[in-house]
Write a sequence for this structure.
């Protein structure tokens, strides 16, 4: 992305927080101003009021410096507190934008990108941006102002002495840059290692059933030990940098003060300076070391912020591959006739990529119940995912009620199609929340009705917490059949004219299958239904069957006709896979 565009996008995040920005930067300005004025006040006392023996002015000046000192503390407080608040609010805005943007992206994006990486961008990366967003301008402002102010006063007082004071600057700057850089990079490493630990734990806990059934606990512990060791290493590196930085700072600060006294003494000896100047310079030395280190850290922090913001920009620039037409033609109602004509599809964007669906033709009347059968990998789920436009055809078309789905909005198509998957996904929440996901504003009565229709209500009633029972992560507290019936209840609530059952009963035992088939029957009535299945029992009473093999429809007809063909269908039938 172009730098100017990136910069503009970044500035946009300051806009809603103008007031905070003003508070932050003006307090930084005040801190810098006070840092330069306070030592100058001391000079006034020593140089003017003391020689004149003006006790009243000495008292006033000391009082004024004391007030400045209190103000310095106050502005420092405001700056530290509200600067960070500014950063964290900007971070929250960016995070909200990023989350909303992620919700818009198409399946293909999530096929390509790992959850862990997306997570680390939305958490770690945004934190470094937020830090840079307020620290970088604050530090730059404060340090440049303090340093230029201090040295201006110093040069006005005694140019020779001020020039000598500049000499050790490069040494301090180099020291600061080396260790500050190391520290900031180190902290970044630590954050990465923490992300590794989290993703390792997540993976292992999610797969705990697999781990235990393969008795691979030792293996998991070993892998975790390695990740954990790398985290310790990263921390140790940071501590080394921190120790180097802090011990160095102190030596340099004391050394610098000592140098000022030493050089000052020599200058007084040779009549090139007076005592008041030496003392004032000494006080200045305390105020200028902090901005120097700030300036050193600035470069590294700024770079990290920029690169994190670039990664943020990359995601925000990512366009959903599936876009709504500029002038959508959503019909008022959908009856549910589906016509698929000469449809070709492949997952890869590569021209040479293998076709997953080849020249598919399908004609389903509204309210018809059809079956889609074929071996695993034939492309059945892919074909089903194309009707709600989760993926787009490379060639050919899909029409619903005679209108090409490309002319409708995704939202409209998807509200009209209900999908029941082989492995339904339940959210980590209550049964009620999981059912009402089908219609977030559903009333309690509607939810109960849906649960009854889906043959799950009797089971819910046996639970102590009923509808409020937690289902656990991905629904682990429920059996496969119970999860499936909850996902069917969702679709009852959604009440779409078109249904897709993708192997909805394939992984269930006979009893659950019976309950689900009964619920499915009820759901299907009056709707266009596509049943993808292995078992003949589910398929036999459909109106029509399409047989898929290697991405093509190889046979079609009703059960008896297909058997009579003595082709692929009857072969699958004889293998008992149908
Ligand atoms: N998200 C995906 N990205 C790339 N290839 C995929 C994806 N999903 C499925 N495939 C491939 O597409 C082919 C058809 O898969 P699928 O439609 O799931 O078959 P079926 O449902 O008939 O078992 C398989 O070869 C599979 O490897
Ligand atoms: Mg499938």
């Amino acid at each position: 992305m172009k730098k100017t565009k990136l910069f503009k996008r970044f500035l946009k995040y300051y806009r809603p927080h103008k007031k905070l920005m003003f508070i932050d930067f003006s307090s930084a300005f005040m801190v810098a101003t006070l840092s330069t004025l306070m030592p100058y006040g001391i000079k006034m006392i020593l140089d003017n009021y003391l020689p004149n023996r003006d006790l009243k002015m000495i008292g006033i000046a000391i009082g004024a410096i004391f007030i400045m000192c209190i103000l310095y503390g106050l502005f420092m407080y405001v700056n530290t507190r509200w600067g960070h608040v500014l950063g964290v609010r900007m971070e929250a805005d960016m995070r909200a934008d990023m989350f909303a943007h992620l919700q818009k992206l198409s399946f293909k994006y999530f096929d390509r990108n790992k959850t862990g990486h997306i997570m680390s961008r939305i958490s770690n990366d945004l934190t470094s941006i937020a830090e840079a967003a307020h620290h970088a301008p604050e530090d730059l402002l404060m340090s440049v102002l303090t340093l230029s102010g201090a040295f201006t006063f110093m040069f006005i007082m005694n140019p020779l002495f001020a020039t000598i004071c500049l000499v050790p600057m490069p040494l301090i700057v180099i020291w600061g840059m080396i260790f500050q850089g190391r520290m900031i990079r180190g902290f970044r490493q630590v954050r990465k290692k923490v992300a590794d630990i989290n993703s390792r734990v997540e993976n292992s806990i999610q797969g705990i059933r697999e781990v235990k059934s393969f008795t691979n606990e030792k293996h998991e512990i070993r892998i975790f030990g390695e990740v954990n060791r790398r985290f310790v290493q990263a921390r140790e590196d940071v501590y080394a940098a921190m120790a180097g930085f802090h011990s160095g700072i102190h030596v340099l600060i004391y050394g610098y003060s000592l140098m000022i006294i030493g050089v000052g003494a020599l200058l007084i000896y040779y009549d090139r300076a007076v005592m008041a100047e030496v003392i004032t310079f000494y006080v200045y030395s305390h105020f200028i070391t902090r901005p120097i280190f700030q300036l050193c850290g600035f470069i590294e922090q700024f770079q990290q912020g920029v690169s994190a913001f670039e990664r943020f920009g990359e995601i925000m620039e990512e366009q959903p591959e599936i876009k709504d037409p500029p002038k959508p033609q959503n019909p008022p109602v959908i009856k549910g006739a589906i016509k698929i004509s000469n449809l070709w599809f492949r997952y890869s964007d590569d021209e040479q990529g293998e076709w997953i669906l080849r020249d598919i033709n399908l004609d389903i009347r509204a309210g018809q119940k059809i079956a889609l059968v074929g071996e695993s990998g034939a492309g059945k789920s892919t074909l089903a995912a194309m009707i709600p436009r989760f993926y787009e055809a490379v060639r050919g078309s899909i029409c619903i009620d005679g209108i090409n789905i490309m002319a409708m909005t995704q939202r409209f198509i998807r509200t009209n199609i209900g999908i029941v998957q082989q492995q339904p996904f339940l959210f980590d929440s209550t049964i009620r929340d999981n059912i009402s996901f089908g219609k977030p504003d559903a009333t309690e009565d509607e939810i109960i009705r849906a649960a009854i229709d889906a043959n799950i209500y009797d089971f819910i009633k046996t639970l102590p917490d009923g509808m409020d029972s937690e289902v656990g992560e991905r629904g682990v507290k429920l059996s496969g059949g119970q999860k499936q019936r909850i996902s069917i209840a969702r679709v009852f609530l959604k009440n779409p004219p078109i249904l897709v059952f993708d192997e909805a009963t394939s992984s269930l035992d006979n009893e659950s299958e019976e309950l689900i088939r009964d619920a499915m029957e009820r759901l299907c009535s009056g709707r266009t239904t596509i049943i993808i299945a292995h078992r003949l029992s589910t398929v036999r009473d459909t109106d029509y069957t399409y047989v898929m093999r290697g991405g093509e429809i190889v046979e079609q007809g009703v059960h008896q006709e297909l058997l009579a063909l003595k082709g692929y269908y009857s072969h699958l039938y004889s293998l008992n896979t149908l």
Q: What stands out?
A: The CA atoms of residues 334 and 451 lie 25 Å apart. The chain has two domains: 3-317, 366-392+405-574. Residues 111, 347, 356, 374, 376-382 surround adenosine-5'-diphosphate (ligand 1) (CB under 6 Å).
